[in-house]
Structures are given as C-alpha cells and as structure tokens.
Specification:
The structure holds two protein chains of two kinds. Chain A has nine helices and ten strands. By secondary structure, chain A is an alpha/beta fold. In chain A, the strands form two sheets. A six-stranded mixed β-sheet of chain A has the order 6-7-8-3-9-10, with helices on both faces. In chain A, strands 2-1-4-5 form a four-stranded antiparallel β-sheet, with helices on one face. The two termini of chain A are about 15 Å apart. The relative contact order of chain B is 0.14. By secondary structure, chain B is mostly helical. Chain B starts with a helix and ends with a helix. In chain B, helix 3 packs across helix 8, helix 4 runs parallel beside helix 8 and helix 6 runs parallel beside helix 10. The chains are: A alpha/beta, B mainly alpha. At the A-B interface, helix 3, strand 6, helix 4 and helix 6 of A face helix 4 and helix 7 of B.
Chain lengths: ~270, ~290
C-alpha cells in the first residue's frame, strides 16, 4: 500500500495538467419550480490526476453537481467543458464519448440491477459499449471482482450483498470502462470502519496509479457530508454553502479554515480506524 | 295524482336543472381530467416516437447485449404463455362452434361455419385475447419492474454508465411483446380452428374436414394475413409502450407503483380497443 499522501505523486502530474472538467458560471436549478436555484455561479476547474473533496450538508445539491460534472444534466446557465470541449456544442456522439471517460458512482447502495448477477452487473457497461458477449469480459470482470473483494459472490444476485458490498459493486461496475475521472457520491455513508479503510486504500491506489489498481492515475471527486475520513486522501477541498461553491484550498488549508459550516461538517463522527 | 306529479316535478325541478349551468366543481373535474388525459397522451406519443427512433437508429448498437434481452422477452411473453394459449384456443373453438352449430343448423346454413370462424376468431377474438393474456401476465410485471427500477434509481445508474435506459429497458420489451403477441395469435387462431372442427365432429355435425377447411380457406382473403399480423404486432407494441411509459417515463416513488400498474392496464386495454376499432374500419372498407 502506498503512503497516506498521494499528493507527492499527483502534484508533479498536476502542475501542468489541463482541466478535464470545468464549470464556468454554472447555475443548478432547484427541483421545485419557482424555488431559488440550488447552486449559483459555480466556477470549478478539475485537473487531470486531481483528487477533490466536495463537502456539503445533505440536500445541498451535491448529487446534482456531480451529475452535471458527468455531463448527465444540461446546464441552462453557465458552461460545462469536458476534456477541453464545450459540452453544449458537442454532437451527441461526442458527448457520449466524453461521458464514457467519466464514471459516476451513486451512494445509497450503488443501485445495481437486481435481475443480473454481481458479475453480470460489472460486465454490463463493457459489453454494452464494446458490443461483445459477457464471455469476452470475463477476465476484466474477474480482476475487478478480485480487487473489490467480491469474487466469492460473483454469481450471486446483488441482493445477497450488504450495503458496503453493493457500493463496491457499483465501484467495480464504474471502473470496467477504465474512466479517467471518477465521481463518488457519498460512498462512505453508513459504512463500518473496515469498509471505510478499504475504500481509503483503494481510492488512494486508484488516484496514484499504484497498488493493486495498476493503471494510470484516475482523477477523483468525492462528495460527502462527513469530510473527515477523506482529508488524508484529498488534494483540494471545496465546500457548498449558501448556494455557493467555495474552494477551501489544500487539506492543510482546509483543516485550518475557520469556516463555521466546514468546522461543523468536520466534527461529524468519523469512523474509527 | 296530477298534484302528486306536479309536486314531484317541482321537487326535482328538471327544467331548471337542464337549463342551469353545471356546478363549477363538475366543470373543474371534467376539465382537470381532460387536461390530465391529454398530457398523458402527448407524453405517451413522445415516448413512443423516441422509442421507435431508437429502435431504428440503434438497431446495430450493443446487439450482443440487446438481442439476448429481446429473446428473453419473447420467451417470457410468448413461450411461457403457450400452454394457457393452447387451452384458450381449445375453449374458443368449442365455444364458437358450439354456439354457431346450433344456430346455423336451425336455419340450414352450416355452409357459413368457416365464415363465422374466420370473422370471429381470426379477425377479432384471436388477436385481442392474445393481447389481453400478454397484458395480464407480462405487461403488469413490466410496469412493476420498471417502476421499481425508476424509484430505486437504477435508471439514473444506467445513464451514468452511458447506457441508454430506453435502449436497454424499453426496446427489448417492445420488440419482444410485439413478436410474442403475433406468434401467440397465430397459435391461438390455428388451435381454435382445429378445436372447432373437433367439437363439430363430436356434435355429429354432417361436415367433412375437407369441407370445413375449404369453407375457412374460402372465407379468408390474403389481406387477412397481413392485417392479422399488423394488428397482433400493434397490440404487442402498444401494451409494451403503455406499460413502459407508466413505469419508466415519469419520476415515481415505490408507493406509486400500484396506481401506475392500474393506469397501465386500463390504458393498454383502451388503446388496444381503439386500434381494434380502426382495423374494423379497414375490414369494412375491404369488404
């Protein structure tokens, strides 16, 4: 396992790295018509190899912001740049190709397809995008299930997995397309300390391209309402407050920040290590 | 007596009721229903157009994933319903022949037995009964499955993986149910015709097999085969489209699924009846 700070490796990559995703003046509308927007004037540049921690209380628009970054929601106000191209002007095929380079893992159990087995769930995106039968994805699926410690349950339905297992299944399913950017929506919520440690180790390896992952470093954006476990991993920290996106800087700067909401979120009980 | 009637008229005041405007609550009720129906209809129309566009434009996309799903739907909506369809075919043949033999024998018109079978079984009851079976057995399950997928966020998860939910969830159901209803109709019609003769034979009707099938062949026109195929396929596509629309097209909570299922069943039934009425017009024009 690599050291606790991926920053040393990532920093060298990042200094000259071009943004992979960029938001300029983005406004995210509220779900209810007539209500004030969830977020306004978001200017956010995510560089290749970066590891962002996005902290916010529940129901502040974290998920919607991640969906916007993934290109799943069109912006009414503002501009989304995906890999240097304006998402609004990209043709349908171009947008689909850009979206395949970004993976979004939902929280609340990862939302696997209940009628497929664990292995079929993981294979599905690769088979769909490469138009190949499941047998051709077997090697990749096996490697990912080994890495996520789900191999013994490969032929079981997702209902046999506990919440943590389903969350890892969602991660494996997202990684089979070998994305360059991984967006995580509160993946540590309700996980026990052992599961939390597993996620920390796995994401550290993923972000640095080291360890069992053995692939190019993946850009990570993790949204959470309990940021404490993420501080050793993150390289930059942002906060959603009063419908605004605020950058708090590096984890060291964030740790020293007097921002009351940030202090409040940081004080959330942290899983024991 | 007259006084009593006058009193009753005054009490009901029919004339006043007929000439006065409807209470506002009734108008609001009817208006809101009309707006809801028109909204549902236009939404269903858009959903159907989107689905047919995807069927046409993505017919070669992810065939390794979609084709097995279509085959699974055909097995689910067609093959697994075969026993009950064959039972229904036997019952239909017995009922139609049983009723018509008695009637036609009374007027000495046994020669019309084939015409009756073609008109009742081939043109009307065969396709609609197959469609109703598929609606009850598979359409209901589809609404519940898709409604749960929508409520539990599986649809958003598919989108996040770059998988088009309509392509993955709706297209196999539309193709599968359309093919299933068409094939089940063929089995139902064929079974009913054979069982009809069996019943006529058991009732000692003086009708040779050759004569019976000659009557049926004479009553059939080539357009019957085309229209039967179109009608059955149309029923299947309509059932799939309405059930998928109710389950998938709108945000839904788990508690809304029973209501969505009811709407899907009623909507599919009404749409099939309307399509059937259109085909009756076509048959009338042909005759």
């Amino acid at each position: 396992m690599s050291p606790a700070t991926p920053g040393a490796v990532a920093a060298a990559v990042l200094d000259d790295a071009a943004p992979v995703i960029e938001l300029q003046g983005a406004t995210l509308p509220a779900a209810a018509p007539g209500a004030p927007p969830l977020l306004e004037g978001v200017d956010w540049s995510i560089a290749a190899g970066d590891f962002w921690l996005l902290a916010a209380p529940p129901a502040c628009g974290k998920r919607m912001l991640l969906e916007t970054l993934a290109g799943l929601r069109a912006l009414e106000v503002g501009t989304l740049w995906l890999f240097g191209q304006d998402a609004a002007t990209l043709p349908r095929a171009g947008l689909a190709a850009a979206r395949r380079r970004i993976a979004l893992v939902y929280g609340d159990g990862g939302r696997p397809l209940p009628r497929l087995t664990v292995a079929q769930n993981v294979a599905l995106p690769w088979c769909y995008h490469h138009d190949r039968p499941e047998a051709d994805a077997a090697g990749r699926v096996e490697a990912l299930l080994e890495a996520t410690e789900l191999a013994p349950l490969a032929q079981a339905p997702p209902a046999r997995l506990n919440r943590g297992g389903r969350q890892r299944l969602a991660l494996a399913r997202a990684l089979i397309l070998e994305p360059e950017v991984l967006l995580l929506d509160n993946p540590l919520a309700s996980l026990d300390p052992r599961q939390t440690r597993w996620w920390q180790g796995f994401l550290r390896d993923l972000a640095t391209g080291q360890g069992s992952a053995r692939r190019p470093p993946v850009t990570v954006v993790a949204a959470t309402d309990a940021p404490a476990p993420w501080l050793p991993l993150a390289r930059r920290v942002a906060l959603l407050k009063d419908r605004r996106w605020l950058e708090l800087g590096s984890p060291q700067q964030a740790a020293a920040s007097p921002e009351p909401l940030w202090r409040e979120l940081l004080a959330e009980p942290m899983p024991a290590n | 007596m007259d006084k009593g009637l006058a009193a009753a008229r005054n009490l009901v005041n029919v004339q006043a009721m007929l000439t006065s405007p409807l209470p506002r609550s009734y108008i609001n009720f009817v208006g809101s229903r009309l707006i809801t129906w028109s909204g549902t209809f236009s939404g269903l129309l858009r959903f159907s157009l989107m689905t047919f566009t995807i069927i046409l434009t993505k017919r070669r996309v992810a065939a390794a994933v979609i084709h097995p799903l279509v085959r699974a739907q055909i097995a689910r909506a067609g093959f697994r319903l075969l026993p009950i369809v064959l039972f229904l075919a036997a019952a239909l043949g017995f009922v139609v022949i049983g009723q018509t033999v008695a009637l036609l024998t009374q007027v000495g018109a046994q020669g019309l037995m084939g015409t009756v079978m073609v008109t009742v079984v081939v043109r009307e009851l065969g396709p609609i009964l197959s469609a109703l079976l598929v609606l009850m057995r598979t359409g209901t399950a589809s609404v519940i499955e898709l409604g749960a997928a929508r409520a539990l966020g599986e649809v958003e998860a598919l989108e996040a993986l770059g998988i088009d939910p309509i392509h993955y969830l709706v297209v196999p159901r539309v193709l599968g149910m359309a093919i299933a209803v068409a094939t089940l109709t063929a089995y139902l019609v064929t079974g009913a015709i054979f069982c009809g003769y069996l019943f006529a034979f058991l009732q000692d009707v003086p009708l040779l097999p050759g004569e019976y099938f000659r009557q049926i062949a004479a009553a059939l026109i080539w357009q019957d085969f085309v229209l039967l195929g179109l009608k059955a396929t149309g029923f299947g596509a309509i059932i799939a489209m309405v059930t998928c629309f109710q389950g998938l097209a709108r945000p839904i909570e788990l508690g809304d699924i029973p209501l969505a299922t009811t709407h899907a069943l009623v909507g599919s039934f009404v749409a099939c009846i309307v399509l059937n009425a259109l085909f009756i017009v076509v048959y009338l024009l042909l005759s």
